[in-house]
């Protein structure tokens, strides 16, 4: 069951990458930073999946993915936010988070090769904050990337909570761990479906 959910998520991620890339090159309608994020996410997922099947430790790749995801989604929201003050908030926050993580890795470089719950939490909450800034703007402006933003908020918050719970339940039964990863796979699939729906609503006929 969980394999079906995971590979379905990967499939829809690939579909989204193809569709958004098509809309960018043929119609110049989609955001280049969001396409870069989709490409980066798909590449990292494939690498982590291969490493998992080859029984290699993929935690280094996971940490690279978490940081790269924050950078690209931060640039995405910075590019669509209208107010200079909001863009400045994103820029300063991004630099601050990268500085904090750099200090952490400098003090203990082994954190790059571990399940870094701190990095996951701080990067996810940063992205959620930027998404909420965009939500605030959409109260009075045209709704752009509305469904993507909904998906980003719920996926980032949901997956972070599941990672926190999973970290607390490491000593519990495999059934509990399996349930946690199953919920995360479901969240990822829903996330990709929302992104697909955004393309249908915003770019399919435009």
Characteristic terms for this protein:
206 residues, mainly alpha, 7 helices, globular
Task: Tell me about this structure.
This protein is mainly alpha-helical and 206 residues long. The chain has one domain (2-202). Helices cover 82% and strands 0% of the residues. The chain is built from seven helices and no strands. It has helices at 2-27, 32-53, 59-80, 84-107, 117-138, 146-168, 174-202. Helix 1 packs parallel to helix 7 (174-202), helix 3 (59-80) runs antiparallel to helix 4 (84-107) and helix 6 (146-168) runs antiparallel to helix 7 (174-202). The longest helix is centred in the last third of the chain and has 29 residues, at 174-202. It is globular, with a radius of gyration of 17 Å. It starts with a helix and ends with a helix. The mean pLDDT is 90.
Task: Give the SSE map.
Blueprint: H1 2-27, H2 32-53, H3 59-80, H4 84-107, H5 117-138, H6 146-168, H7 174-202
Helix pairs in contact: 1-2, 1-7, 2-3, 3-4, 3-5, 4-5, 5-6, 6-7
| Structural class by helix and strand composition | mainly alpha
First-to-last CA distance: 37 Å
Find the count of extended strands (DSSP E, 2+ residues): 0
Main beta sheet strand tally, sense and closure: none
Task: Please outline what is shown here.
By secondary structure, this protein is mainly alpha-helical.
């Amino acid at each position: 069951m969980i394999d079906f959910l995971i590979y379905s998520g990967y499939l829809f991620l690939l579909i989204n990458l193809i569709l958004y890339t098509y809309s960018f090159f043929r119609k110049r309608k989609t955001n280049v930073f969001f396409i870069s994020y989709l490409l980066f996410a798909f590449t990292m997922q494939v690498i982590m999946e291969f490493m998992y099947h080859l029984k290699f430790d993929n935690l280094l790749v996971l940490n690279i993915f978490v940081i790269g995801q924050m950078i690209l989604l931060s640039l995405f929201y910075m590019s669509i936010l209208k107010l200079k003050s909001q863009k400045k908030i994103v820029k300063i926050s991004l630099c601050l988070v990268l500085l904090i993580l750099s200090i952490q890795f400098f003090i203990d470089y082994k954190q790059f090769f571990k399940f870094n719950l701190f990095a996951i939490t701080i990067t996810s909450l940063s992205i959620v904050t930027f998404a909420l800034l965009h939500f605030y703007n959409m109260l009075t402006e045209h709704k752009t990337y509305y469904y993507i933003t909904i998906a980003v908020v719920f996926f980032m918050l949901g997956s972070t909570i599941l990672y926190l719970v999973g970290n607390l339940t490491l000593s519990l039964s495999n059934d509990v761990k399996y349930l946690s990863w199953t919920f995360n796979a479901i969240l990822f699939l829903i996330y990709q479906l929302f992104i697909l729906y955004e393309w249908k609503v915003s770019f399919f006929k435009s």
